[in-house]
Design goal:
201 residues, mainly alpha
Length: 201
């Protein structure tokens, strides 16, 4: 679980750094590099999803909608990079909105073993706001939207890393508590049996 979060965070950080380092123009090679990172991030999410289903640990993994979008988007950028050079800004903005929504869903879904505070919802809300701003209010200077997108993806990568550590710790503690439940039930059964035997005597 932690490995998936770290790899997704690294992919997001690399995308953000690429956008910040070269915000003035999008070349075909840069689009392909970004596409490869998105495809890798989506593939990691899918592998983790099927691995989690195979474990049957009592947790029901959520279908990775954002991961599927990242994988499909990354493949499209790799196969048809020239098509996306001029519209990459808008597509990244929409994807940023989906990432923010996905983080909110993850926080709500995992609230049973990792109760979220309101502070954890701040970053995904900011990501959604940045994505909407890029799509609705395109600026004349191409460097500004890409700079905003780059900073947003860097923040997302850092937040994904911290969120992964939090979920991993909370989940390990939750699974440790679950593993003690059979022992507790068995001990209670022994106590009841001994009590009945004592009453018979």
């Amino acid at each position: 679980m932690l490995t998936r979060f770290i790899l997704r965070a690294l992919c997001a950080l690399l995308v953000g750094i690429l956008l910040v380092s070269n915000p003035t123009e999008m070349t075909v090679l840069l689009v392909q590099i970004i596409g490869g990172l998105f495809a890798l991030s989506g593939a990691i999410t899918f592998i983790g999803y099927f691995t989690e289903k195979a474990r049957r640990s009592g947790f029901r993994p959520m279908f990775p909608v954002v991961g599927a979008g990242c994988l499909a988007f990354g493949v499209c950028l790799l196969v048809w990079p020239a098509m996306f050079v001029n519209i990459l800004m808008y597509v990244l903005g929409v994807l940023l909105c989906l990432i923010g929504i996905g983080q909110i869903i993850a926080l709500v879904k995992n609230r049973y073993f990792a109760p979220p505070g309101w502070q954890l919802f701040l970053l995904p809300v900011l990501l959604i706001a940045a994505g909407v701003f890029i799509v609705v209010r395109p600026l004349e200077a191409a460097s500004v939207p890409f700079l905003i997108l780059g900073v947003s993806y860097i923040l997302y990568g850092a937040g994904e890393f911290l969120l992964g550590i939090r979920f991993w710790r909370c989940r390990r503690r939750f699974e440790a508590e679950l593993s003690t439940l059979p022992d507790i039930a068995e001990a209670e059964a022994i106590d009841i049996t001994e009590s009945e035997n004592f009453n018979e005597i």
